[in-house]
Amino acid sequence: MPGDPGSLAAAGTAARQSARDLDRASAGGTTAYLSLKDVWGTSTSVRARKEGQRSMAALAEAGRQADVVGTALQGYAAELSALQARARRVVETADLAGLVIENGQVRLGWGVTGEADLEATNDRSALASTLQAELDGLGAQHRRRRDRLLAELATSTRELDEIATDLRLR
Q1: Is the model's pLDDT at 115 over the cut of 80?
Q2: What is the C-alpha to C-alpha distance for residues 3 and 73, in angstroms, rounded to an integer?
């Protein structure tokens, strides 16, 4: 199970902190732009306030996207950690039974692994099949969860790109 849940969780925490910082900056900027009306009543002031408020709204939306990304990273980190723990249990069970996992495949280990006993050999073969099925299931879950995270990140990237494009075009 590739990945580092700790680093993913830390990145998620940093993204969510950035979201809070952007939200505070947007709120402060919005207040500042609104207060211009009281001290500067020209048409230039109206335009500056309008553009500033639009920029602050974009900043707030960027903060929301940072929170979405942070939440997704933290959720994926927790899921990945659980999958890795389950995979470790599969590996430990295989090791105890004298089975080997190489390149995602569970197979009987080489050499003498116990008495020559047909029932024990059949039991070990059945366990290898069970562990292989569990390992395959874990891999499929990992791919689905990773793909879901990547889709969420791609959606956020597109939304941020739309915000940036909208700011440039106006």
Answers
A1: no
A2: 12
Q: Catalogue the E-assigned strands of the chain.
A: 99-102, 105-108
Query: Could you give the C-alpha distances from 134 to 10, 126, 127, in angstroms and in order?
Result: 29, 12, 10
CB count in 10 Å sphere of residue 94: 20
Q: What is the pLDDT of residues 90-107, one digit of tens each?
A: 999 999 998 999 999 999
CB 63 within 8 A of CB 86: no
Question: Which residues neighbour 162 within 8 Å (Cβ) at sequence distance 6 or greater?
Answer: none
Question: Using the 8-state DSSP alphabet, how is residue 73 labeled?
Answer: H
Q: Which two tokens stand for residue 64?
A: 């929301």
Q: How far apart are CA 57 and CA 25, in angstroms?
A: 11
In this prediction, residue 67 carries a pLDDT of: 98
Q: Which residues of 53-76 are buried (b: 16+ CB within 10 A; e: fewer)?
A: eebbbbbbbbbebbbbbbebbbbb
Domains by residue range for the chain, with CATH: 5-169 (1.20.1260)
pTM for this one? 0.84
Q: How far apart are CA 111 and CA 159, in angstroms?
A: 57
